[in-house]
Amino acid sequence: MNVLAIVGSLRNESLNSCVLETLKERYAPEWSISAADIGSLPFYNQDIELSPPPIVKAFLEQVTEAEAVIIVTPEYNWSIPGVLKNALDWLSRVEKVMVGKPVLIMGASTGMIGTLRAQTHLRQILSSPGLNARVLPPGGNEVLINLADRKCRDGRLINEETLSFLDQVVNRFNNWIKTNKP
Ligand SMILES: Cc1cc2nc3c(=O)[nH]c(=O)nc-3n(C[C@H](O)[C@H](O)[C@H](O)COP(=O)(O)O)c2cc1C
């Protein structure tokens, strides 16, 4: 499956990028994951949404072509990082490329509750009319990687419990996509 990953952190040593790199290796070749470069997107501006710069067009095309989108994000001040909100605002307009798109969300933080507030906010944002994505329902599927600085080493997740939970959620996401066609 052609999967597009959107990471909410731009940091070189990002724990959320550690999660993404782990996903890329662990679920290949079933998942072919490419990552969007949301840090290079300009700030969303309605004045240019009908003729956006090439980097925005390329991002919209990446999302259109993806069979599924994974959002891996830290929590910033009890919400999602601005860079991720900006990317979602671009996706919410004109062609509305996220409508009906299967989405899996996950997040890693150094805190105790592992991005719970950010993910709750993110689900609300993804439900807005401009995005209206098909997000894997939360019951049993919330990937909240807390104390993540202890669970990543050399850019990969090493915590067996977390890896085994990821296996279950990824498996449920794959089945859910197959059985819940719009
Ligand atoms: C601006 C900022 C705000 C943060 N706010 C929160 C927060 O609200 N909740 C939380 O659990 N961690 C918060 N953190 C700590 C992050 O969980 C931690 O920095 C994490 O490593 C960020 O993800 P990354 O490693 O992928 O960059 C914040 C960090 C920054 C830089």
TrEMBL record:
<dbReference type="InterPro" id="IPR029039">
    <property type="entry name" value="Flavoprotein-like_sf"/>
</dbReference>
<dbReference type="Pfam" id="PF03358">
    <property type="entry name" value="FMN_red"/>
</dbReference>
<comment type="similarity">
    <text>Belongs to the azoreductase type 2 family.</text>
</comment>
<feature type="domain" description="NADPH-dependent FMN reductase-like">
    <location>
        <begin position="1"/>
        <end position="138"/>
    </location>
</feature>
<dbReference type="GO" id="GO:0016491">
    <property type="term" value="F:oxidoreductase activity"/>
</dbReference>
<protein>
    <submittedName>
        <fullName>NADPH-dependent FMN reductase</fullName>
        <ecNumber>1.-.-.-</ecNumber>
    </submittedName>
</protein>
<keyword id="KW-0560">Oxidoreductase</keyword>
<dbReference type="InterPro" id="IPR050712">
    <property type="entry name" value="NAD(P)H-dep_reductase"/>
</dbReference>
<dbReference type="InterPro" id="IPR005025">
    <property type="entry name" value="FMN_Rdtase-like_dom"/>
</dbReference>
